[in-house]
């Protein structure tokens, strides 16, 4: 699971890509212009940005350059019809991690997405382990001891986020921002419900702890 920002002004293509990545269990948000992309990047954090070069008003290259100037190191895959070596060099020199030329196959873009995520520090570790809990982001399975724990997609995403950030405290609002798409209507009460469900399914009431007045933290070694 990754949180992806797709920036593409061709709406039919954007819809096709959005549906594809959702089927691959990613959380995906779509921006249709460079200005909209910059707004998303200021308000949310992503694991990957898929960025079209030719955008109205603010180009994808300008978005990328602004990202890097602000020390935003999120991996970026550029999408473009520009296929000259000079264009590719310009894009890569501006901070792109990969470059996909239109037209492209969905399978190729998907493979490049997986490769970019593997290279990123957040997705570097394949199987996450915390005490006797193991989470495999590729197969999207969770086991406790030798017993598989069935989680719904949002429960899985929340647990994965906690396991990638052990012993760090997050408010309910921060969890909503990092785990749920920005256009999702979800309350802080719903976050409490999800956490109660995770504790019950993991059979460990202390696995996710309340930090009074602040938020929640995952304690991987608490049994």
What does this molecule look like?
The chain has helices at residues 11-23, 34-43, 60-69, 85-93, 106-119, 153-164, 172-179, 188-201, and strands spanning 3-7, 27-31, 48-52, 76-80, 98-101, 128-130, 133-136, 141-144, 147-148, 208-211, 215-218. The chain has 223 residues and is of the alpha/beta class. The chain folds into 2 domains: 3-123, Rossmann fold (3-Layer(aba) Sandwich), CATH 3.40.50.2300; 128-218, Arc Repressor Mutant, subunit A (Orthogonal Bundle). The chain has a 5-stranded parallel beta sheet with strand order 2-1-3-4-5, sandwiched between helices. Strands 6-7-8-9 form a 4-stranded antiparallel beta sheet, with helices on one face. A hairpin with a 2-residue loop joins strand 8 (141-144) and strand 9 (147-148). The longest helix is centred in the middle third of the chain and has 14 residues, at 106-119. The radius of gyration is 19 Å and the shape is elongated.
